[in-house]
Amino acid sequence: DSQDCTTMKGDAGQGGATAAQAAVVDVSIPRVDVKEDRAVKKMDRAKRKGRPEMRLTDWHRRGMVGRSDEWMPERGLPDPIPRIEYDRVSEEEFIEKFERPARPCVISGAFDRCNARKRWSLDALYAKYGEVKFKVGEDDDGYKVMIKFKYFLHYLTYQKDDSPLYAFDSSFSDHAVKKALVDDYEVPKYFRDDLFKLCGEKRRPPYRWFLVGPPRSGTGIHTDPLATSAWNTLVYGRKRWVVFPPDTPKEALRVPGGDSEAIHWFTQVLPKAKAPDWPHHPPIEFIQYPGETVFIPGGWHHTVLNLDHTIAVTQNFCSRVNFKYVWPRTVRGRPKLSIKMLNELKIHFPELAELAATIDPHKPDDIPMSSSSDSSSSSSSSSEEEEEKEEAPKKSSKKSPKKASKATLAKRKESRSSESKDDDVGRKRKICASDNCVSGCKLCGGKRRSVDAPDS
Predict the structure, then answer these.
(1) Residue 288 pLDDT more than 50?
(2) Distance between terminal CA atoms of the chain?
(3) Residue 74: CB partners within 8 Å, gap ≥ 6?
């Protein structure tokens, strides 16, 4: 690694980047004005909707809150990730040393001038968004599980769940009140080249998420949808990341039994991946600190665990650099969107339109297809899940939709299969560890899993 780019190295177990360590802030939870019984009932209802196969007592039966030695990073942990300073590395240099060769890295200082640093404390968020609902999960029919932010904050004060609920909201930019969050930050200069902008906000795939997560919540192992790359900026707290290069077999990274919880990946799979007899590329493990931005190239497997109460924002993007990988997946998974995108490319980037004409979308390429064992209570929902949510029929009634019958779910699955093949990223598909899950699957106990997830 060149010394001019890798400006910060350190000991992640004892602080990682020195400057970032000094910025660690213990996120205090404000006193929330709610009725105790009502708040607990609201959260219990959200749990039942998001994980109907679990009893409420199952949420903390493993006692992970008292087993922090199993999921907190050990002291002396090496810090193998390249770390750069935002003001010292140009866009051109970043492309040549990180984006084009597809190298993950950590960037410090990208949000130094953003209002998010002062407006996104839990106190400030409670004051402005306490009565506003945020997404904390999804039910069996693909509908969002929403909860008022004040109830979620109250949940943070008492929860002892092994894998807690996680506020992971992708529609904040469309909400009359929550859209103010968009004005609190700017996309870092390295990631403003986003070709999906050409399709318009309403037609492009879901791509940005506002995140508030307690300790032990996180995102299961996955690669990002449509081979997009991603960036994740942490404003408060710490996140523990593990990444693997694209050629790592996804089967080797799955939690035994198909469990999708991030906490269980870190306690069951990571020790095997760090063992001397691990036959694949060793894991790249690091800590993300407040004010740091993580860059994950398309195709890289990654999983994230929140070590503290964390507040972050993440976005996926298609640039001119990763276009050749994103394009074939867009054609396969979002054919109508690809037509719109191609027409816009002919106008704004004719050279990319010519490149698109030379790419066979059905020919295997050198980045493995997106994979995930995600979509759990604490894990993020996938972009595909969000796409289906947008395409779901509008309801005239404010009441929650009735649960569909097995026959109806089977018809939905059949209709999706015509547009989303086994390895294509398109509308939401549910699978279990066997990859043959259908509605009412006995292999996974009805706990269906989605294919892709955005970064946590």
Answers:
(1) yes
(2) 27
(3) 13
DSSP β-bridge partners for residue 169: 210
Q: Which residue has the tokens 């259908």?
A: 438
pLDDT tens string 330-373: 999 999 999 999 999 999 999 999 999 999 988 876 664 444 43
Instruction: Determine how many CB atoms are found less than 10 A away from the CB of residue 49.
Output: 21
Determine the Cα–Cα distance for residues 29 and 238; give it in Å rounded to an integer: 16
- Dist CA 374 CA 220 (whole Å): 5
User: Going by DSSP bridges, is the β-strand pair 83-85/301-306 parallel, antiparallel, or unpaired?
Assistant: unpaired
Q: What is the mean pLDDT of the chain?
A: 80
CA angle 180, 184, 190 (to 5 degrees): 125
Instruction: Compute the C-alpha angle 332/335/336, nearest 5°.
Output: 165
Residue in this structure with the two tokens 């503290």, named with its chain if needed: 308
CB half-sphere exposure, 402, CA atoms < 13 A: 4
Residue 417 parent element (H or E): helix 406-417
User: Encoding tokens for residue 376?
Assistant: 């759990």
DSSP strand E in 207-341: where? 208-213, 218-222, 229-236, 239-244, 284-288, 292-296, 301-306, 310-317
C-alpha 218/C-alpha 166 separation (Å) is 8
Residue type, 63: G
* Number of residues that make up the chain: 456
Continuous segment of H or E residues that includes residue 353: helix 350-358
Return the C-alpha torsion angle 112, 116, 121, 125, nearest 10. 180
Cα angle value 36/39/42 (rounded, 5°): 150
Return the amino acid letter for 212.
Answer: V
Q: Is the pLDDT of residue 230 over 70?
A: yes
Cα(422)–Cα(332) distance, integer angstroms: 11
The token duo for 150 is 């004040």
- Can you tell me which residue has the tokens 């190298």? 103
Name 351's bridge partners. Answer: none
> How far is 226 from 70, CA to CA, in rounded Å?
33
Sequence-distant (6+) residues with CB within 8 A of 81 are 104, 105, 106, 241, 284, 286
Query: How high is the pLDDT of residue 135?
Result: 95
Both structure tokens of 116: 């998010």
- DSSP sequence for 93-107: HHIIIIITTT--EEE
Q: Would strands 449-450 and 430-431 be described as parallel, antiparallel, or unpaired?
A: antiparallel
C-beta contacts of 322-325 below 8 A and 24+ residues apart: 322/99, 322/227, 322/228, 322/229, 322/297, 322/298, 323/195, 323/352, 323/355, 323/356, 324/355, 324/359, 324/365, 325/227, 325/298, 325/299, 325/365, 325/367
